[in-house]
# Entry
Amino acid sequence: MKILASDFDNTLFFRDFRNDGEGYIKKTDIEKIEDFQAKGNLFGLCTGRALFDVFFDAKDIISFDFYILASGAVILDKDYKTLHKAVIPFSTIKDMYLLFKNKYNYSPLFVTEKSFCCIQKKIYNVDTDIYQSIDEMDDLEFIAISYVLNTLEESYNLRTELNSKYGDIIVGYQNSTNVDIVLKGNSKGTGIELIKKYYNLDKIYGIGDSYNDLPMLQKVDVPFTFHCSPEPVKQQAAYLVDDIAQAIEIIEQEN
# Structure
C-alpha cells in the first residue's frame, strides 16, 4: 500500500479567473486518483482549509482517505473520526485581533470546525457568520485564523511580527498573500507525522505548491511540487511534476 498526501488549493483544486473564478479539479487527476485508490492505495488531504470549506469545492468529487485540515490543527480519518484537534485560546485571539486591527486595520477570517466568522463584514464572498465585536465570539472554538492581505510583503511582515510576539502560543504560516494561524505545535508536518504513525507507515508521499506546504514536504519521505512553484519549495522536492497525475505515475513506478 502506498499513501499520497496532497495540498488542496493550486495543487488539486484550481480557479479559472478567466471564467469568474470558477473552481475545478482536473479530470486527469480525478481519474488517476481513483485508479490509485482502486489498487489499494490511499489518497488524503493536507490543507489549510477546514472540512466544511473543502466540501464547498470537492464533496462528491473525490473520496479522501484521511484529512489533515487547518494546517494540522484538525486531523480526521476517512469516516470523519477526529484523530486530533487543537483550539486556539480566546484570550490570545482577542489580543492579536486588537493589536493588528488598531495597528494596521487588518480584519481576519476566523475559522471554527463548522463555519467562517468575521467581525462586521465578510472577508471572502462565502457564507460567513457575522459578529459585531470580538467579545461576542468568546464562546466559540477556533481552530484557525487567516489574514487575507494584498501583497507578499504584507503577509511576510505580518507572519514575522505575529510569530515574534505570539510564537509561544500560536504560529503563522505564509500562504502566498495570506497568513494562516493555528495553535503552536501544529503544522502540515505534524499532521503527516500523525498519519504516518496512525497507519504504521514506513513511507509516505506528499505534494504541495506553496510556502505553507514546506512543513509537509519536509516530513514526507518523497516530496513532490510543481515546475512553477516558488524556488524554496522546489528546493525541498525530490520531484518536479506538472500535476498530481504525473506524481502518481512516478509513485507507482517505485518499488
